[in-house]
Write a structure and sequence with these properties.
CATH architecture: 4-Layer Sandwich
Number of helices: 3
CATH class: Alpha Beta
Largest sheet: 9 strands, mixed
Order of helices and strands: EEEEHHEHEEEEEEEEEE
Shape: globular
Number of domains: 1
Distance between the termini: 45 Å
Helix content: 10-25%
Strand content: 25-35%
Structural class: alpha/beta
Number of strands: 15
CATH topology: Purple Acid Phosphatase, chain A, domain 2
Length: 218
């Protein structure tokens, strides 16, 4: 079993969490990410908000570097490829460019209803022991690990001086695992590491596991 970098963590057998917000299966060789919300800045500009135009470049550059580093068979995008219809064309071109590096498996999220005519979308995808879907709808999968997105989990660390840093998180809650949002615009929803949840904080240089905390007694 190869040694890992501080920016990686082994979260289950054959499964490596990368602090760049991706999950990789060493044996099956898929790489999973979620919630790109590609083209968020285009959506904001259509609405009259002049946000900087760097998000799409950030998403594509990070994805390509992950593909080069891991050489997966499939890139599984677990829904919310776009933020809205403003980036439908750009997102289709992105998937075409990524397809030159590996096989893209693109799942539909609740933001992707405008993409049906632009690219093939799946509601879900299965591989041995794992069932991928976006997570905005109920699923009856019971004997597989569900890997979803949608919730944009995040967690925080503090120092002795009172500084607080909020970062994206990967959550393992029973047989449901929640990927961090890949979008650089996603603020994230705070998630507590209780006895039922393992929470891993993700930064490009380090992955940290939050200690599990017992619920306070009444």
């Amino acid at each position: 079993m190869p040694a890992l970098f501080p920016s990686q963590a082994r979260v289950a057998e054959n499964l490596v969490l990368d602090g760049r917000l991706a999950l990789f299966h060493e044996a099956q060789r898929w790489l999973a990410v979620a919630d790109l919300h590609f083209g968020y800045e285009l959506s904001q500009r259509v609405a009259g908000r002049l946000v900087p135009m760097w998000g799409m470049t950030s998403v594509e550059d990070r994805l390509k570097q992950l593909l080069l580093d891991y050489q997966p068979r499939q890139l599984v995008i677990v829904g919310d490829v776009v933020h809205d219809r403003a980036a439908a064309t750009e997102a289709a071109l992105l998937i075409s460019r990524l397809a030159t590096l590996c096989e893209p498996v693109v799942l539909a999220g609740n933001h992707d209803r405008h993409l049906a005519s632009s690219m093939p979308l799946l509601d879900s995808w299965r591989t041995e022991g794992f069932y991928f879907h976006h997570g905005h709808c109920q699923s009856d999968a019971r004997d597989e690990v569900q890997i979803i997105g949608h919730h944009h989990p995040a967690g925080s660390v503090t120092d002795g001086a009172g500084q607080r840093l909020k970062v994206p998180a990967f959550v393992q809650q029973g047989n449901c695992w929640i990927l961090p949002a890949f979008s650089p615009w996603a603020a994230g929803a705070a998630w507590e590491a209780d006895l039922e949840s393992r929470v891993w904080l993700c930064t490009p240089r380090r992955v940290l596991r939050l200690p599990q905390v017992e619920p306070a007694s009444a």
